[in-house]
Specification:
Organism (chain A): Streptomyces formicae
CATH superfamily of the largest domain in chain B: Naphthalene 1,2-dioxygenase Alpha Subunit, Chain A, domain 1
Helix content of chain A: 40-55%
Order of helices and strands of chain B: HEEEEEEEEEEEHEHHEEEEEEHH
Largest sheet of chain B: 7 strands, antiparallel
Pfam families (chain A): HTH_62 (PF20552)
Strand order of the largest sheet of chain B: 12-18-17-16-15-14-13
Order of helices and strands of chain A: HHH
Number of domains of chain A: 1
Number of helices of chain A: 3
Largest interface: A-B, 33 and 38 residues
Radius of gyration of chain A: 15 Å
Structural class of chain A: mainly alpha
Number of domains of chain B: 2
InterPro entries (chain A): HTH_62
Largest sheet of chain A: none
CATH architecture of the largest domain in chain B: Alpha-Beta Complex
Protein name (chain A): Recombinase-like domain-containing protein
Distance between the termini of chain A: 21 Å
Number of strands of chain A: 0
Pfam families (chain B): Rieske, VanA_C
Oligomer: heterodimer
Structural class of chain B: alpha+beta
Chain lengths: 74, 348
């Protein structure tokens, strides 16, 4: 932890540099939220339609999306 | 002896007493660690026990005045490096190893401030000699509401603390300074404003426009001073509606400021997790770029900027703030002045 003045840290909420997968997922989520909608069903169908896969390589389900967001949002 | 005016100037420059102020993020002092901090123009030691309990002591050994922050963390007390005097977290001298039984032992000789940790930040109560017991504290609702997710962003700026608060009480700067930002993309560049009093402060709000961007700010004085505002958010951020900010300021000293911004949205469940994921991956950096615009401008302001201005209606919120703070600084300075000694009737 730094003690030098001034403290100016851009990424205070991060625990790590996001992986390419995480950047891709986040950018696609923004697109889905903008163009498709804000419901969980919109998210799942929007990600699958854009060929962005769940971590296991399978299509997303509501369950897998909830679990992955719980992991990534911690 | 200082004059009341000089004392008021000092308080105005370094921060009002008899209230809580944020100090630093909680993460700045890990369990079992110590950290020197400056707040309200004075030096303090943040001391955290391994169980997480936090104390804030004046950074000054009561023996010869050496900084305790250079000392050793002994688990439940700090030992001064200079002569080994041990001070407990409540400010009591527990041991003088160089002269056991010395009359310093057992006496509370170091100021220990009341502290609380909220929303990832340390708050401390800075009382003057007449008001050592902490004032009541009502925390900002977005920081205590379980259905609201608030994420702290902290930064350190070179400039008077008041400039940072005034910046928050100035919605119209958003349309110009932040014109090119991912949330300030809309809204009129002209507007009419009014002040609306509340029982805890006041709103400074547009009268002719609502729900576009940065249409109102609320100053709240609830034992700690804070500002609340909301900004409509682009749909790309996902479910959760508007984006809110709770802002607080730490007067570090006359020319340095710590700024605390809790970015919050009303989200729970998967919506909360998704918002947090987007925030840390993409959105936080965009907000940082906006905040940097504030820092660049405020750090470039001359120290006497507020001494030579020509204000107009949009500055009402700022003017109200200054009058309030100046009046309170003067009241605190007067209250701290000893009554003039009665003149001796002996003339011979």
């Amino acid at each position: 932890m730094t003690t030098t003045w001034p403290y100016l840290d851009v990424h205070q909420s991060r625990t790590h540099e996001p992986t390419p997968y995480e950047y891709k997922l986040a950018a696609t989520l923004e697109e889905v939220f903008t163009k498709d909608g804000h419901e969980l069903a919109d998210v799942v169908s929007g990600l699958n339609a854009r060929q962005v896969h769940a971590p296991d390589g399978a299509p997303w389900t509501e369950e897998s999306f909830r679990a992955e967001m719980n992991r990534l949002g911690a | 002896m200082s004059t009341p005016t000089a004392a008021a100037d000092h308080l105005y420059a370094t921060g009002l007493r008899n209230q809580w102020h944020p100090v630093v993020p909680s993460s700045f002092v890990a369990p079992g660690a110590m950290r020197k901090v400056t707040a309200l123009g004075e030096q303090w030691l943040l001391f955290r026990r391994s169980d997480g309990t936090l104390a804030m002591l004046a950074d000054r050994c009561p023996h010869r005045g050496a900084p305790l922050s250079l000392g050793k963390h002994l688990g439940d007390r700090v030992a001064c490096w200079y002569h080994g005097v041990e001070v407990e977290t409540d400010g009591t001298v527990s041991s003088v190893p160089g002269l056991p039984g010395c009359n310093l032992e057992g006496r509370k000789l170091v100021t220990s401030l009341p502290v609380r940790e909220i929303g990832g930040a340390v708050l401390a109560y800075f009382g003057d000699e007449q008001h050592p017991e902490p004032a009541g504290l009502t925390l900002p609702e977005p920081l205590t509401d379980p259905d609201v997710d608030a994420i702290l962003c902290y930064a350190e700026w070179n400039g008077p603390w008041r400039f940072a608060v005034e910046n928050l009480l100035d919605p119209m700067h958003g349309a110009f300074l932040h014109h090119e930002s991912h949330t300030m993309y809309d809204g009129d560049t002209t507007a009419k404003f009014r002040i609306r009093e509340t029982d805890r402060g006041y709103f400074f709000e547009k009268t002719d426009q609502r729900g576009v961007n940065f249409d109102w700010v609320e100053l709240c004085r609830t034992g700690v001073d804070w500002v609340d505002l909301t900004i409509p958010y682009p749909p790309s951020a996902g479910p959760g509606g508007p984006f809110g900010i709770v802002g607080m300021v730490c007067p570090v000293d006359e020319n340095r400021t710590g700024v605390f911004f809790w970015r919050y949205r009303r989200v729970t469940g998967w919506q909360r997790d998704t918002w947090r994921f987007l925030y840390k991956t993409l959105i936080e950096e965009r907000h940082w770029q906006v905040l940097e615009q504030d820092r660049v401008m405020l750090e470039a302001m001359p120290a006497d900027a507020d001494q030579r201005e020509n204000l107009y209606q949009h500055d009402l919120g700022v003017v109200r703030l200054r009058r309030m703070y100046r009046a309170e600084a003067e009241a605190q300075a007067r209250a701290a002045q000893p009554a003039a000694p009665a003149r001796s009737s002996s003339a011979s």
